[in-house]
Amino acid sequence: MLQSLVKKAEQGGWMPIFPGWNSYTSEMIGDHVISVMSDAILKRINSQHQSLPSFFDVESGYHYLNQNCFEEPDTFQEYSDGKGRRALKTYEKYGYIPLEDPVKESPHTGEQVSRTLEYSYDDFAMYQLSVLLNASFQDLGITQNSLDQLEERATFWRNVFDPEYKLVRGRHADGSWSEPYDPTYDDYGYITEGTPWQYSWFVPHDVAGLITEMGGDEIFVSNLTQFFDQHLYNHGNEPGHHVYFLYNYASGWAWKTQSVVRNIIREQYTTGPYGLPGNDDAGQMSAWLIFAGLGFYPVSPGIFPVYVLTSPLYQSAKIQVSPNLYFTVQTYNNSATNVYIEKTLLNGKAYNKGFISHQDIMSGSTLEIYLSAQPNRDWGTEEVPPSMSKMRSI
Fold first, then answer.
1. CB within 8 A of 84, min separation 6: which ones?
2. Model's pTM, two decimal places?
3. Residues 268-282: tens digit of each pLDDT
4. Structural contact between residues 373 and 340, judged by C-beta atoms closer than 8 angstroms
5. In DSSP terms, which residues pair with 325 in a beta bridge?
C-alpha cells in the first residue's frame, strides 16, 4: 500500500491526501498519509524490526510528503483536482485557518477548526519522521528551518482553543472568536461532522499540552467525564475514537478508560445485523473493536510507537508477529464486572505504565493482566503515555 502511494505521487506529481475513484480528491480533511508513512517508518516494519523499511521507497515518499507540507500546486486546475493541502497559505499565515477562508475547492468546504487541528497533528508526525530520517539520509534536504517550522505548526491547535470555554472554537482573521457559540451544536461550518465538544479532544500528539490548556489533570478528567456522562461523544464517527483512552494521560485516572471502553463495546457493538455503530470507513469501526478487545490502542499513530493500555475483553489472545514469534495477552479474573486492571506483568515482571511499546509487542512479549471489580487508582502511574509537551525518545 505504501509503495502504491509513492508510485501515485511519482506519476501524478503530488502525494495523495484522500485518493479515490482512481484519482486525486480532497474529499476529507487532514493530510494523514503523513501519519501512515511515518507510523510504518517509526515502527521499523521490516524483517528485523530495527531499521528503515525496505518495502517502499522511503526517500521518494519523504520528498512528496514534504511537498504537501510546504508547497502548493503551480496551477489552480491542479489544486481544484485535489492536489496539495487545502488552505495551506492561510494556515501558515495566521497559525490557524480563519473563518474568512471558505476552503471552497473541496467537497467538505469550510471546516477550518477541524482542519487546523488535524494539520497540527500531521505536522508533528512530519517533524518526528524528519528527525528520524535526518539521521539516516543526508541528501533529503532536511533543514533546521523546516524542522522548526513543523515543530511550531504542531502547536497551532492552541490557536483555535478558546481559553474561556477551554474548548475549540471558530476564529476570525482578526483573532476574535465566532459568535454565537454552543459547544454542543452539531452544525457549525468550521467543525467536520461533529461538535466543538467532540473535536476539542483531537490533539493526539500532545495530550499533555491539552491537559495543561484545560487547567490540569483534575479539570481535564472532569471535562472528559462530563463528555461521556452527558453522551456528548459520537462513536459512529472516527475522529473521536481515541478519546476513551485519554484518561491514561492523567496520572491516577486510567481506571476510567477501562470502564468507558468496556461500556462502549457493550453498548455500541453487537454480533447481529447492524452490529457496527456507524460506517466501517475502510475498516476503522471494526479495527477499534479489535484493538479495544485486545486491550491496547494506538492513540498517536505516526507520532509515538506506543499503544495505550486498557482491560481486554478476551481471556487470552495471541498475535503472530513473525513466523515463530507471538505477542500474548493473558487476563485473569476477566468477567463482565471485573473490568478494572489490578496489576500487570510484562514478561513476568511487574509493569505499571499506562502504555506498551511497539517494540515490546514485536519482540514477542507476554502481557499478563489481572482484573478486579474495583478500580486500582495506582495502576498506570509509573509513566503516562508520551506527548509532544513531554518529549521522550523514539
1. 14, 68, 71, 72, 73, 78
2. 0.95
3. 999 998 899 988 988
4. yes
5. 322
